Predict the 3D structure of the following.
Amino acid sequence: MPSPFPGMNPYLERDIAWHDFHERFLIVGAAVIGAQVRPDYVVRVDDHLFVHEIPDEPRQAAGRADLSVPSMGQSDVSSGGAAVPDAPTRVRVPVVDVAREAYLEILDRHSRDVVTVVELLSPSNKRRRGSDRSQYLAKRARVLASPSHLVEIDLLRGGEPMPGEDLPRCTYSVLVSRADDRPAAGFWPLGLADRLPVIPIPLRPPHADASLDLQGLLDRVYDEAGYEYDVYGGPPAPPLSAEEAAWAAPFLAAIGR
């Protein structure tokens, strides 16, 4: 069944759902775009790598097996048989974690140039302070300074919007920045009750834009992932206001929530 809400479903913004939704949304979106742009273009799913220090040891212990290396005891010796002395002192180096977030690249099949980058923003991109936002903004700036188009989809109510001039106040948004039209860009400001739009995915002349029906894509992902059984066990994050909760109540009642 499709999402009960007419636009973005705020329950998909919960921590338990967002990463899975983010990955599925882009992978299914790649298939939808790819069917329109073949054979001149290919659509690839790639990852941003956000590297940041782990601030305390409990996070390290809870985390990632690929950060561990085998240790050598004092009795181990080199292949030449000589004992290896201990270092005269011990120091601490930063422990880092690498977070991966998917995005899409549309490539010219012949030149392999990146024609269009499609981003779905994540909470870490929108935190006012933090290395993840800084790293994302640096990559965003490189795209905006390049001959590639940028499509940036923001389906998160929380956090700090991306920088830009003359941005209207809105709950969600879509930015389409065409390389040949910068610094001007198309912008879709959206409210909680608004249907997500059909947006253009720009290509290179002489090829016409592809298109992406964001609402249809969300409903398809919601249905295929079975989110109706999983995402309603707690309130949205951030919480809905009293007015928003009253607006949402009939949609939740329609699915027995």
Notes: Residues 57-77 have pLDDT under 50 and may be disordered. The radius of gyration is 23 Å.
